[in-house]
Amino acid sequence: MPLASVLRLILLASIWGGSFLFMRLTANSLGPAVLIEGRVLAAALCLLLISLFLRRQLRFTSHIKHYFIIGAFNTALPFLMFAYAAQTLNASTLAILNSTAPLFAALIASLWQKERLKVKAGLGLFIGMVGVTVLVGQQALALGEQGIWAIIACLFAAAMYGFSANYTKVAPAVAPFENAHGSMWAAVIVVLPLLPFMPIRDPITVPISLSVLTLGIVCTGFAYLLYFKLVKDDGPASALSVTFLVPLFGILWGRLFLGEEIGINTLLGALLVITGTILVTGFSFKRLLAKGG
């Protein structure tokens, strides 16, 4: 892999790992709906400005059903679930649970696409689920019912990402940039009706405003562009490797900026989840590095 791609990969993982830090900082003050509406609106406006600069017109009504499916299941609903969980769980746990998405994608593919689950993939699913148990078991006991619901929300969000990954196999052919742009506006519309039911709890301060803008512009809009650039230049395997790096940055940022404790259950759980994901996806770092250096 070219050095430029490696640097983009690390940058993208660090940005997405940081998104859980910003959600942790803002979720309790803003509530899930206001936080995510601000995030997707900022991202949508960012992508709109880029589309105007590139002179790329978004024909939203041409693929409106597709945009709403992606906007709901790949953006709005999982973002809301993670924002809800961020009120209780630490950034490290959020990032690791997010990385279970490929495990759910494989399971859903076996049920929906009738893809036969290989022995290696089945082992990966088992190891990944053991990793989740190791990671959250102690926290579930410590946090009680609220913690259990937060963990379920994260796993539900990861399952929606898994559904979206399978949906893209049968979805209409839409350019990556338009996919990101159109689905973001759809997400804005999906979240909007929830605002009256999840009001803001605390005054909006400058740090909170900056956190939401960073979540939207950097962690969503700019990150999408980085991601699609990576897919275009180096293929899906490179994009997939981000999944294994995001938890590492989630743990790092949580420790550096929030002072989160890194327990043995966090490290062991992350290792098992990442190992399970590698087995399920058949990913090979050796093949990745050998490709197009």
Detailed description of the structure:
This protein starts with a helix and ends with a helix. Helix content is 79%, strand content 0%. The chain has one domain. With 293 residues, it is mostly helical. It contains 13 helices and no strands.
Got a strand count? 0
Radius of gyration, CA atoms, in whole angstroms: 18 Å
Indicate the overall shape: globular
Largest sheet: none
Approximately what portion of the residues adopt beta-strand conformation? under 5%
- Kindly state the mean pLDDT as a whole number? 86
Task: Summarize the amount of helix as a percent range.
Answer: over 70%
- Number of folding domains? 1
* Number of helical segments with 4 or more residues: 13
Order of helices and strands: HHHHHHHHHHHHH
Distance between the termini: 4 Å
| Secondary structure category | mainly alpha
Poorly predicted ranges? none
